[in-house]
Amino acid sequence: MEGKTVIVTGANAGIGKTTAASLYANGACVIMACRSLQRGEAARQEIEAMLASPESSRKQLWIHSDRPHPGKLLVRELDVSDLESVKRFAISIVKEFSKIDVLVNNAGINGMGTDIPSKTPQGIPFIFGTNFVGHFLLTRLLHPNLSKSGGGRIVNLSSVMHHWGSKDVSKAVSSGKYPRQYQNSKLAMVHLTAELQRQYAETRVSSVAVNPGFVASDIWRGIRPDSLVGRMFRLAMAVLALDTKQGAATSVAAACMSDEEICGSKVPLYLVPYWVPSFARLPFEMMGVFTGVHSCPPRVSKNEKQISMELWKECTKLCAGYLE
Predict the structure, then answer these.
(1) Per the record's keyword annotation, is Plastid included, yes or no (predicted)?
(2) For burial by CB atoms within 10 Å, which of 118, 141, 193, 197 has the most?
(3) Among residues 182, 200, 270, 274, which one is catalytic?
């Protein structure tokens, strides 16, 4: 990754921070795109302190060389729930950097037990808007810079929860009803990955969808630890959950793998941190023992191409005023 420029959204906590730190430790110039500059700067300082201790950094990060060779670590403001913020961020990045090599669309919220707005500033249901629509716009706006790298990469954070999304996620968007926001946002990431492979094939910009697994990360902060549900959940997490290094494995691998490994796939490339047998996707794709990074087909219907194209059109309408 030495010499490459990488953007990681939601890089101040959880697997986003570990992803950013790992790519930085391997020589990349990493832009930590965070909603709060204060929390982003605090995370940057934590990463710098971690890299100062080789033993600690190797335990917590994916480092592919005998000796870490850090690149640059920068913090920039980005609120993916607000399309105005996405537009401002993209404009500033295009001015500051001539090319972007990797975009990791990581930021997300599950809404469990958290006090969140019902809508984004643009009136889109908050969870779907944060997890998907903001990243859709960001990807579209940064495509020219990604294409200048001669092999740009887009990494889209999905989840096992995409299995429970709507049969046709494009209709869920066009209807304006947005059922199962979290599940559909993660299914939409899979469809976006497929459509990006088609839309951007001529510009040599590739895309990968990744499932981080069940991870003990900051995303569960909304669950009250003192409640019965909270105590049971924490117990389950202690037994079954991956740590943030394991959870970041698929994102780091997707950012680093070669174009040949991605473009040869006939279905959207989807990486998981567990061994998943072909005869029983669930529960093996949901939780288990970390066994490295594996590729398996995501759950998409036979008319994936049509759904992905319609989803692209519907989200283009939602973002119309910001794509110019």
Answers:
(1) no
(2) 193
(3) 182
